[in-house]
Please model this.
Amino acid sequence: MTVELLTREGCHMCATARRDLTRLCDELGVEFTEVDVDRAAADGRPEIRADFGDRLPVVLLDGDEHSYWEVDEPRLRADLGRRG
Model:
């Protein structure tokens, strides 16, 4: 499973989500990547900002929206626990 955090520079909720996701993923031994939607749009991926830019931060699990505005820790724990 891949875990991706969509963020935007200067977003305080994104900083909180990054901290929470870092703690959780470190505990579970899972890596995540972070994508700044504005940078991604400038680099030729405008759809990512168009799709998710109004609900940041967003956690994607295997490319699908898992949660937004905060890390849904109980649900993410359960879903990551199912990974095989």
In short: Residues 69 and 77 are 17 Å apart (CA to CA). The chain is about 45% helix and 25% strand. The beta strands are 3-7, 32-36, 58-61, 64-68.
